[in-house]
Amino acid sequence: MEDAVSLRPSFCTWADGSPMHFFAVFDGHGGPHVSALCREQMHVILAEELAAAAREGEEVVDEERAWRAALSRSFSRVDALAAVACACGRAAPDRPDEKARIEAAGGRVVYLNGPRVRGILAMSRALGDRYLKPEVICEPDITITERTVDDECLILASDGMWDVISNETACDVARQCLEDGRPSSAGRAAAGSGEAASSSTGAPAAAVGQESEPRCYRAAALLARLALGRESSDNISVVVIDLQGRG
What we know:
GO terms for molecular function: metal ion binding; protein serine/threonine phosphatase activity. Its EC number is 3.1.3.16. By secondary structure, this protein is of the alpha+beta class. It has helices at about 35-55, 60, 65-80, 95-105, 160, 165-180, 215-230, and strands at about 5-15, 20-25, 110, 115, 155, 190-195, 235-240. The protein is built from seven helices and seven strands; from the N terminus they run ββααααβββααβαβ. The chain has a three-stranded antiparallel β-sheet. A two-stranded antiparallel ribbon has the order 1-2.
């Protein structure tokens, strides 16, 4: 297992006093060194960067800009820490804009069992791959989605799941699990994995909450088992966050 899962409810407080939650799946391509570092340090560093933004008044002036800047600085700091770690791996830099950026930096994309930077790494943005700089960068590709009261859940997973399960199927499975049971008063999150280990490595983990096996745990575990049943060839880590607090 090379993935790492981080579940950090209320990891920091926003300017208006509301708690902020951090949930992540880190795909440790080529080894657990950098993914484990991300699991232990990313939320800590992000909290420091958000606090710095608060002191400078950034988060009050423009919340989205503050988040983007804090995330970018956090990724850069973790990448610097990962300089002594070893990581190589696989995924897919199949976006034309990323290919153009790599070539503009003097690199090239070689198609060897899929597109790979210099014929080595099948992704164009990663942490810790210092030997592939400047083509491979640590700058995160950030999207911001505003939640609505109708949002049911959030599914985070490594490509070991997404390679064999569509968005629609994943949502259907999670929805069925989350709708089966009693309502509760607090949101929960749980992680599941295709291998038996501890929660720190992305395995079936104790959920955030009081129940030993809440519905979000069952959803994550079922998605992981489904990916295994479909013969996924990669590490499988799944996090399901119940946005409706159903237990």
